[in-house]
From TrEMBL:
Transmembrane segments: none annotated. InterPro entries: SsuA/THI5. Keywords: Signal. It comes from the Bacteria. The keyword Protein biosynthesis does not apply. Belongs to the bacterial solute-binding protein SsuA/TauA family. GO terms for cellular component: periplasmic space. It comes from Shouchella clausii. Pfam families: NMT1 (PF09084). This is SsuA/THI5-like domain-containing protein. It is found in: Periplasm. Residues 1-18 form the signal peptide. Residues 41-248 form the SsuA/THI5-like domain.
Length: 328
């Protein structure tokens, strides 16, 4: 019934605009997101509040479940924009791509995963991971690289001090942990909180608070597409910025209600607590501008993980002018 009411409301709004003689034509923009998470709440909020529609954009959103799949979708023209870890643009550029993926707007600025333990000891210490089985993420992906970076900061060698499992597809990691695989796992929200509610595990630490700011997830498009329609991406950034400002100014409960259609099976209370967790640790970028300092931190994390093919300069893979214009 709720979806029907939303659809009816949208239809009425369109009729009113037409009656006033306004142009309701919008450009459809296909966005491929690497996962569905409250970590991306400012983007969903901007969609729900109509900020993209106000800028003449109709978002067609697809969840592609994994950085490699998301980038493949972008490069093969299956999507116009990819919402994915910035490291993927470096991997593509290192292969001397004729049409590289360019980061043009930032969405998140910290790691978005939480360490979930199967057993709650009540007094977690990082050294507890030694000798455990850790259900890891995809090799070379941001969750895994930041995870390893944080473990090393706590004098833990992720490849020697614990059993690291990396043979499970990204989309299946949470279900594998739920079925009994691993003592610890990295999970995004709201999955981490859902596991707590269901008694499957307990959040004992945040990788977002342990690591420095990093361009963890950004919007990117192929260079040729950016060149052909720069105004479209400026308007996209403007709409995103409105969502970023609103999530900072309103309560987690208000945000949860707005983004509920994106998480049909998740209770409002879980959505609200997930938003609050991310806000408290500063995970949501306050504006869409990706900075050189954050890019440098990304390169450091990739190099520490042994995954940096070459240190590609900020200027080659980031177009910060688009997001700056969008903010204006």
């Amino acid at each position: 019934m709720k979806k029907r009411n939303i659809a009816i409301g949208t239809a009425i709004a369109c009729l009113l605009l037409a009656a006033c003689g306004q142009n309701t034509d919008k450009e459809t923009v296909r966005v491929a997101e690497v996962t569905r998470s409250v970590f991306y709440a400012p983007f969903y909020l901007a969609i729900a509040e109509g900020y993209f529609a106000d800028n003449g954009i109709d978002i067609e959103l697809t969840t592609t479940w994994g950085g490699d799949k998301t980038m493949t979708s972008l490069l093969s023209d299956g999507a116009d924009i990819a919402l994915v870890g910035s490291e993927t643009s470096i991997y593509v550029a290192s292969q001397e791509a004729a049409d590289p993926a360019i980061n043009f707007a930032a969405l998140t600025q910290t790691d978005g995963t939480f360490l979930v333990a199967r057993e709650d000891t009540g007094d977690f210490q990082w050294e507890d991971l030694k000798g455990s089985t850790f259900l890891g993420q995809r090799k070379g992906g941001m969750p895994q690289m930041v995870g390893e970076y944080v473990l090393k900061q706590h004098d833990i060698d992720p490849h020697a001090d614990l059993t690291l499992l990396q043979n499970i597809e990204f989309a299946n990691i949470s279900s594998s942990f739920a079925s009994g695989t691993g003592d610890y796992v990295q999970l995004f929200e709201p999955q981490a909180s859902l596991f707590e509610e269901e008694g499957i595990g307990t959040v004992v630490a945040s990788f977002g608070t342990e690591a420095k700011q990093v361009p963890y997830t950004s919007f990117m498009a192929k260079q040729s597409v950016l060149d052909q329609n720069a105004d479209l991406f400026v308007r996209f950034s403007a709409a995103l910025y409105e969502g970023q400002k609103q999530i900072q100014s309103q309560s987690p409960e208000e945000t949860a209600k707005a983004i509920e259609p994106f998480f049909e099976d998740t209770p409002i209370a879980i959505l609200a607590s997930s938003v609050e967790r991310y806000k408290e640790q500063g995970s949501y970028a306050e504006d869409p501008v990706l900075t050189e300092e954050a890019w440098a931190q990304l390169l450091e994390i990739m190099e520490e993980a042994g995954e940096l093919p070459e240190p590609i300069p900020f200027s080659e893979l980031v177009n910060d002018e688009i997001s700056k214009q969008g903010m204006e």
